[in-house]
TrEMBL record:
Protein name: UDP-N-acetylglucosamine 1-carboxyvinyltransferase
Keyword Cytoplasm recorded: yes
Molecular function GO terms recorded: UDP-N-acetylglucosamine 1-carboxyvinyltransferase activity
Record: residues binding phosphoenolpyruvate: 22-23
Any Pfam family the entry gives: EPSP_synthase
Stated family: Belongs to the EPSP synthase family. MurA subfamily.
Residues carrying 2-(S-cysteinyl)pyruvic acid O-phosphothioketal: 116
EC number: 2.5.1.7
Classification of source organism: Bacteria, Pseudomonadati, Pseudomonadota, Gammaproteobacteria, Alteromonadales
Entry's localization field: Cytoplasm
Amino acid sequence: MDHFIIQGGTPLSGELTISGAKNAALPILFAALLADSQSTFSNVPKLRDINTTEALLKELGAGVRWQDEQLLIDGGSVDKVLAPYDLVKQMRASVLALGPLLARFGQAQVSLPGGCAIGARPVDIHIQGMRRMGATIEVENGYINAHVEGRLQGAEIFMDTVSVGATENLLMAATLAQGKTVLENAAREPEISDLAKYLNNMGAKISGAGTSRIEVQGVERLQGCEHAILPDRIETGTFLVAAAMAKGDVLCKNTDYHSLEPVIEKLREANALVEVTDNSIYLDMRGRELKAVNIKTAPHPGFPTDMQAQFTALNVVANGSATITETIFENRFMHVPELQRMGANIRLEGNTAICGDSPKLTGARVMATDLRASASLILTGIIASGETRVDRIYHVDRGYEHIEDKLSALGANIKRVSE
Ligand SMILES: CC(=O)N[C@H]1[C@@H](OP(=O)(O)OP(=O)(O)OC[C@H]2O[C@@H](n3ccc(=O)[nH]c3=O)[C@H](O)[C@@H]2O)O[C@H](CO)[C@@H](O)[C@@H]1O
Ligand SMILES: C=C(OP(=O)(O)O)C(=O)O
């Protein structure tokens, strides 16, 4: 298994180009299953999760190929409706195959994704919503077995928890349903708006994406089209935090500050100078005092849980004490014991981490437990004195494109070691 070796204490300065968003690309690539013709995607990040998605789409019979940095997906040849355990277990987002397969073929068999390091992550809201649309769904032998006679039927669906994945799955299913679907208490993440943009370009009739009430007028057929994946706000935020922690400066290009407002607000509160243009964000922390900030995660437009671990690391390096409260996932503090091994002064109380001053951070051998936890360990390793080894970096490769190359270009001393 690969690991990273980081020699800490190097300054960070420079610019980088932000990749396409993993969390937009995944639902959008699955949405290509709704069409009987080819879609062409640009700005698709090169990630392990994208490789897994390609493998699953191929398994279902879709045409999948890269051409000149664009990913071409043809749903016309899909001839299977079974998403097997071996692929789904590698990536929870595989459950997003359910809505498109059921809506287009009237049946789907998708392995239950199971829990993961950050929480149990059930998919009951996805299943209940599809039942409301007329599907018969049984969960047995670890699989979600769904079918519907004829087409799904439009329905009014109130989701009692704000769920990004359930909103996406039901939105995709509703595009080919008969009649009108209303999704109430829908998630408002920018990735949902990007999915709706793609679906509308395919011929869907969706309004209200990006608000908590989405209306979908079902259509009989969708066709492939071109789509550029929106920039990754979490990758952007991670690099902004890295520069703030290292008291350096960074220019993130090909990004979108609108989707990052809660994060930028917190970076300014931490005393960073942040300047934005239409497609770039510049952060300068040189010669400034980094101050700890209180964080409470919430669904968009609140502070994103996917930036929580990175801000925990920021607070460890910053002056003063502050609290980090995680409200989305019940177990998203796996990075804390690893950060403590590097000298971090953090105390956990329920769903809150209390971060105090940590006068001495030293390199250590630490283990990545999930994607963003891994990022927090890498960023702390860049600040700590001496050598840090980060094990199990396959988690990082799920969601960060060439993170070691991008950090090295900014001045970090980080090397991938393949065993
Ligand atoms: C691929 C992708 O886009 N992943 C993101 C997506 O995950 P994902 O879509 O899995 O997260 P959700 O928004 O669904 O989860 C939010 C909360 O709802 C709960 N829940 C969800 C569905 C359900 O049927 N029942 C239920 O109880 C979850 O356990 C969690 O506590 O949104 C999360 C919250 O912003 C992000 O951290 C992930 O990076
Ligand atoms: C939790 C994340 O992703 P996933 O939902 O794919 O596990 C993430 O991107 O931080």
